[in-house]
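This week, work through this protein record:
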Amino acid sequence: MLDTMTFTKTVGALCGALLVFLLGNWVAESLYHTGTDTPAYVIATGDEDAAPEEPAEEVDFNALLASADPEAGGRLWRQCAACHSLEEGRNGTGPSLHGVVGRQVAAVGDFKYSATLAGLGGEWTADRLAAFLESPRGYAPGTTMGFNGLRGAQDRANLIVYLASFGGILEIPAAEEPAAEEPAAEEPAAEEPAAEQPAAEEPAAEQPAAEQPAAEEPAAEQPAAEEPAAEEPAAEEPAAEEPAAEQPAAEEPAAEQPAAEQPAAEQPAAEEPAAGISPILAAGDPEKGVRVWNQCRACHTIEKGGRNVTGPNLYGIVGGPVGVAEGFRFSPALSGHGGVWTPELLDEYLANPRATIPGNRMTFAGLRNAEDRANVIAYMATFAD
């Protein structure tokens, strides 16, 4: 049993040990001071000035979408595949993303969304998806999505275009309309040289006329030298006819007129392509068009009976009706256009889709090279009945 003396000794020993510990700490603090001191001088490294100078870059997201690469988006999709599926009606940790581009937010009926997403409303447009993918918790605080986000704007554009190829509807505003006006601005400049050419030829046409009087002056002086002879005026009548003999020489420019007609003889050669099929198809090479088609296959199929993806199946498009494909919903701009896809209309459309038929939903920026357009049209023409 613990008596009073033993308890007193125990408490005293503990207090003594604490006192020794405090004393040792004070001695150590005195010998080795660890506090922070103000530096005598500061070495400027330039970091303080560099930080405020970083400007915030403004990105035209519509332009990024127009040039997006669906194949690159497919590689980014691997980060999403752990929680999402692109099969319709198949949910994982997250909802199925089949047709997510353009559909209503929180629209999968058998998936339980967070209250934040369920209350957002509206549609998943490209701009809203881009903001959400950049920072899910920043765009929708309280969301249960654990993904940190994609910081690269081009990465987000690539992923959105890839998602749109699985039942989505991607509409991009016509951001390149000013570029479509450039050819119109160049037309007056192209006409200026043509206007100057006739003016340059007029002096050349007058030069022969100015030289003819100078050639006749010596003939006029010869009779003056022979005036003392009384009978010589009659002999001079043949000399007076010399100018008439020179008139054929004045007609030599008229003899040169057939040479000026030679360009007219070359015109039938320029009309030769019109005698056969369309000049665009005649100039195209289907084998080279296969390489150009690789840019189209991310959004289209061309085999007979092929499925519609982001864009419609293109079997029989050359010569087929505009805005008509079984099972595909076209934009009002295409469905109401009418007519057929002639090679000439296809060539104009592939050069600048949004300028040729304003309001269509095609995200492709266009093929600027005329040879590439002719080759891919010739290739597509081989897929028809």
Remarks:
- The domain at 279-381 is CATH 1.10.760.10 (Cytochrome Bc1 Complex; Chain D, domain 2).
